[in-house]
Amino acid sequence: MNKEEDFPEIIVTRRAGSRSIRMRFDQKxxxxxxxxxxxxxxxxxxxxxxxxxxxxxxxxxWKEENQKRKLxxxxxxxxxxxxxxxxxxDRARVFETTEGIEFYFPEExxxxxxxxxxxxxxxxxxxxxxxxxxxxxxxxxxxGFRYKSLSIGSAKTKWGSCTFxxxxxxxxxAVLLPDDLKEHLIIHELVHTVHKNHGKLFYKSLCEISxxxxxxxxxxxxxxxxxx
Length: 228
Hints:
- Helix content is 42%, strand content 22%.
- The protein is of the alpha/beta class and 228 residues long.
- α4 (115-143) crosses α5 (179-191) and α5 (179-191) crosses α7 (213-222).
């Protein structure tokens, strides 16, 4: 395989406070290169060239992982106890069966379009609104927290957030978390309605509610949001 024909998109950004060149892949497979503001362009290009093998190796690993995540015929995912599956059909359709949800798309759609991913994201948002809306209200009443509003987004960089005026927002992909982590995520954001940062008081309050909170925090940090 020709490396020149199978190389990632590269975006170079300049940072005034940076002292060295840093490289990382984002979730879309783009190589982000951060370089000191005044470092000559040729030095940045030479560093990229010198690390060609590393870049190629990690790009191939990203492609393999990304392929596993693609929604293709035969794939199955469990969402809130319901099986969601993808199939080949003559046109785009969705069926609700006794076992779960079945998505159908023509074969060429899977290869040339992101319609399967967009349709699934829309489905996840509806599921997330139902789950987080009811569960958050129940836990807030139970634990004595108050929040202003709750909304669902499609963030792929964090599971949830709480604004300064106590507006909660959850990623629709959070419904794919195990049940205990979904509930912990809600409690985490509810505690933020009182303690805005991750200081000692925040973790003290969190651990008083959930004795194994730190173990769940670690699992949430390690968990990767699926990028379909």
